[in-house]
Amino acid sequence: METTYQMKGYTLHLIPTKKFKTMTVSLRLQNTLTKETTTMRTLLTFVLIAATKKLSSTKKLAMYLDDNYGARLSSHIGTKGQSQIINVNSSFVNERYLPQNDSLLINQIQLLSDLFYDPFIHNNAFDEKIVEQKKKELKERLQVNKDDKFSYSLDKLFEYMGHDDVLGISSTGYEEDIEIITAKDLYQYLLKCINEDEKHLYVVGDIDESIVNVFQRYLQFPENQIEYSSSYIFQSKKKDKVEMIEKQDITQSKLNIGYQINCDFLSKQHYAMTVFNAIFGGFSQSRLFKVVREENSLCYYVSSSYDAFNGIMIVNAGIDSKDYDKALKLISEQLQDIQNGHLEDSEIQITKGLLENALKKTNDDAGSMIALSYNRDITHKKETNDEYIQKILNVSKEEIIQVSQQIQLDTIFFLTGKEFNGNN
């Protein structure tokens, strides 16, 4: 059972479990997702965990972690609807399972504090060599995403679908903005994050409330009452649906379809939408997988996903370019079939069972446990996993049909080969 403590400048969440011999600590810093700051925040996640004043190189930091029984330190950037999240994670052996008390928890919390309050800086700027190296790594990461045609085509869908909207802002930044960020700019932005970001810190492992004292002593942030919006319902500013086709030198075409759904994480229909998406394209037993892929052999892969924080649904499919129109037609027919009320009770029950099993499996992974808790905490949605599962199981056939009828096609992005000659 999760317990929450209001600390100085952040909220501490303890999630006790005896399933792991490790402890996982995850600090999440939330602020508004904007085009002006997305690259800065992404670069900061690279530079932040590269060094501290005491451990003034990546090599020294790595050696320190090795000396602490192979502790791990990582960071990454993510988004939750209208917010961008910096995640700093540490995992290490629970000292209860060591032959002697080596104060690993204190070491890791002190390290976490040093990352923010005692970083490796010169003249109020991050170390130039580290910043330049991390700029290079970020450019390489963005290039890898561009070369990955699945990721590239999905990003392009969001760009066209979310034009002039937060949905269209890149969650990992823009290559053209990297070079203009200076080491001093980046350090000043860190100070801004320390003062202004909303912060939640999670601890998962065999723990009790006595560790609260450790956090009180070793980790504090400035008091901050700012809350940032996350979940929202995307509403297109476009008058008509958009169909964009881009040709590249590729063999497998990528079909991406975005839908408005008038539903998000906080909507009463959230649970019905979750079940609908699972029936439509969320599992290998789904309509899209069976009809489009297996019965018609049109797709290399096909699935749908419900983005509960942006209030949209996405369909992704890998197809041959010649099958573009047929794939669109079959996907549309399956949606219309459910909208017209053609749902088998057995289909609903099987899907609910799959969802229940998937949700229960989250208790076997510390990261998944934190992710679910964080979603609820930043939206102030008071709900346990068991309560969530029960609401899923209680969804009626009528509710599934009703939520499906709210779904409207918004944008199609098709990445295809140069031989494609348009709609056949």
Topology:
Blueprint: E1 3-7, E2 10-16, E3 22-32, H1 38-48, H2 58-67, E4 72-80, E5 83-93, H3 104-117, E6 121-122, E7 125-126, H4 128-147, H5 149-161, H6 175-178, H7 183-196, E8 198-205, H8 212-218, E9 242-248, E10 253-260, H9 270-282, H10 287-295, E11 299-307, E12 312-319, H11 324-339, H12 345-361, H13 366-379, H14 385-393, H15 397-404, E13 408-417
Parallel strand pairs: 2-8, 9-13
Antiparallel strand pairs: 1-2, 3-5, 3-8, 4-5, 6-7, 10-12, 10-13, 11-12
Helix pairs in contact: 1-4, 9-15, 10-11, 12-14
Structure, described:
The protein is of the alpha+beta class. Helices cover 42% and strands 23% of the residues. It has helices at 38-48, 58-67, 104-117, 128-147, 149-161, 175-178, 183-196, 212-218, 270-282, 287-295, 324-339, 345-361, 366-379, 385-393, 397-404, and strands spanning 3-7, 10-16, 22-32, 72-80, 83-93, 121-122, 125-126, 198-205, 242-248, 253-260, 299-307, 312-319, 408-417. It is globular and about 60 Å long. The protein starts with a strand and ends in a 7-residue tail after the last strand. The mean pLDDT is 95.
Q: Treating each run of at least 4 consecutive H or I residues as one helix, how many helices?
A: 15
Distance between the termini: 57 Å
Shape: globular
Biggest β-sheet, characterized? Answer: 6 strands, mixed
Low-confidence stretches: none
The average pLDDT score comes to 95
Topology as a string of helices (H) and strands (E): EEEHHEEHEEHHHHEHEEHHEEHHHHHE
Radius of gyration: 23 Å
